[in-house]
Amino acid sequence: MLLERRAVSPMLLFSTSLLAVSAYNYGFSDQAFASCQAMDSFTRQFGVYSESKDEWKLEPLFTSLYNCLKAGGQIIGGSHPRKARFEQKFGC
């Protein structure tokens, strides 16, 4: 038999499910950031105006920093020692 009783435990199923849901939520978060970058108002506020093309553009450096620093912020925010106090104070 492919799946023996001792090979699959409830904790293994729980851990696998938790990792799958976490991966889905992280991808969902990435899509939300991409949607923000695609908005005209975001481009006008954080972009630069090109007079030759008569349009607003985001600089490539800004876009790459915006995408990579988001992950670093999530790691730092999730492991910060005062996270519990912040959650208690603001109900997050």
Largest sheet strand order:
1-2
| Residue-averaged pLDDT | 82
Taking the sheet with the most strands, its summary is: 2 strands, antiparallel
Give the uncertain stretches in residue-range form: none
Number-wise, the strands total: 2
- The helix/strand class is mainly alpha
Structurally, how many domains make up the residues?
Answer: 1
Total count of helical runs of at least 4 residues: 4
What percent of residues adopt helix (DSSP H or I)? 55-70%
- What is the radius of gyration computed over CA atoms, rounded to a whole number of angstroms? 21 Å
Order of helices and strands: HHEEHH
Shape: elongated
- Portion in strands: 5-15%
The end-to-end span amounts to: 46 Å
Task: Give an account of the 3D structure.
There is one protein chain. The protein is mostly helical. It has one domain. The protein has a two-stranded antiparallel ribbon with strand order 1-2. Strand 1 and strand 2 form a beta hairpin. The termini are far apart. Keywords: Signal.
Short description:
It contains four helices and two strands.
Helices and strands in order:
Blueprint: H1 10-38, H2 40-46, E1 48-50, E2 55-57, H3 60-79, H4 83-90
Antiparallel strand pairs: 1-2
Features:
92 residues; 7% strand; mainly alpha; 4 helices; elongated; 70% helix
